[in-house]
Amino acid sequence: MSEPRFACSICNEPSSEICHYCTKDACQNHLCARCQRCSDCCSCEVPLDEELETVHGAGGGPSPAN
Ligand SMILES: [Zn+2]
Ligand SMILES: [Zn+2]
Ligand SMILES: [Zn+2]
User: Fold this and answer.
1) Is residue 48 part of a domain?
2) Residue 66 covered by a domain
3) What percent of the chain lies above the pLDDT cut of 70?
4) CA of 18 to the centre of ligand 2 (A)
5) Do residues 39 and 10 lie in contact, with contact meaning Cβ atoms separated by under 8 Å?
6) Does some domain include residue 29?
7) What's the 7 CA to ligand 1 centre distance in angstroms?
8) Total domain count, the chain
9) pTM of the model
């Protein structure tokens, strides 16, 4: 029973989770683990998409506590 029942509305990847805000299907890559929202709804400071260009120069990002 591990077959995903949904497909990410963003990338169409198999997903078993939905956005708790817009209730659209979202894979783990596009579902925020903090607010359980998809990338379109997530308003967390740390975006899930790593496609964002970091113009702050090289260097490790801030390490979250725990
Ligand atoms: Zn996705
Ligand atoms: Zn959403
Ligand atoms: Zn979030």
Assistant:
1) no
2) no
3) 70
4) 8
5) yes
6) yes
7) 8
8) 1
9) 0.59
Q: How close is the Cα of 1 to the center of ligand 2, in Å?
A: 25
Quick: pLDDT tens for 34-62: 899 999 999 887 654 655 555 555 666 67
32 CA from centroid of ligand 2 (Å)? 9
CB 41 within 8 A of CB 19: yes
Q: Which domain holds residue 9?
A: 1-39
Taking the centre of ligand 3 as the mean of its atom positions, its distance from the CA of residue 31, in whole angstroms, is 8
User: How are the residues of the chain apportioned to helix, strand and coil, as percentages rounded to the nearest 5?
Assistant: 0, 10, 90
- Dist. CA 57 → ligand 1 center (Å): 27
User: Distance, CA 37 to ligand 2 centroid (Å)?
Assistant: 5
| pLDDT at 64 (0 to 100) | 74
